[in-house]
Amino acid sequence: MPSTQYVKRPTHGSQTARVWELADKISQEKGRCATWREVVDAYVQESGNQNTASTQYYLWRKSYVVSGGPLPPSQVNTDSVMLQIGRDGRVLVPQAMRTAMGIDDNTKLTARVENGELRIMPQKLAFARLQALVKQQDKGEGSAVSELLAERRMEAKRA
């Protein structure tokens, strides 16, 4: 998996790198993003520390989401299914779809309606896409905060 400008991959051979290796291996074998539980369990089974596994999983996951992982979301598809909205407004998302999205019970989601379609994505993916967009638009001309403050000061002087 390629590294990204947001998260630096740990040095090969280190304990933290082992978590990343396990996450890569599990993802490759499953054809989807490895879950937190799968990676932590595999690392602890090798006598690794659960806290190290947890921390490194979240860093790995951030890198995975930004880079698109081994299977870009556009290539991970599930069969179309009919879903029904319950009286309380809830929709049950089938396990196959949750797996393809790389989400579990604790994942926060972002939802929007676009051209009459309900679009749902993991909040981390939405945030990572926004970060990538901002990074792409950054002209490297200094701090955005400094620019905003300078603009506000100029506006205040004019008033």
Summary?
The chain has about 160 residues and is mostly helical.
Provide a descriptive summary of the structure in words.
Helix 1 (15-30) crosses helix 3. This protein has a two-stranded antiparallel ribbon. The longest helix is centred in the middle third of the chain and has 18 residues, at 50-67. Strand 1 and strand 2 (117-122) form a beta hairpin. With 159 residues, it is mainly α. It contains six helices and two strands.
Reconstruct the topology from this structure.
Blueprint: H1 15-30, H2 36-45, H3 50-67, H4 95-101, E1 109-114, E2 117-122, H5 123-137, H6 144-158
Antiparallel strand pairs: 1-2
Helix pairs in contact: 1-2, 1-3, 2-3
Beta-strand percent range: 5-15%
Stretches with pLDDT under 50, minimum 5 residues = 1-5, 71-76
The structural class is mainly alpha
Average the pLDDT over all residues and give the rounded result. Answer: 81
Secondary structure tally: strands: 2
**In which order are the strands of the major sheet placed?**
1-2
End-to-end separation? 53 Å
What's the overall geometry? flat
Helix content: 40-55%
Main features:
disordered N terminus; 159 residues; 2 strands; 51% helix; mainly alpha
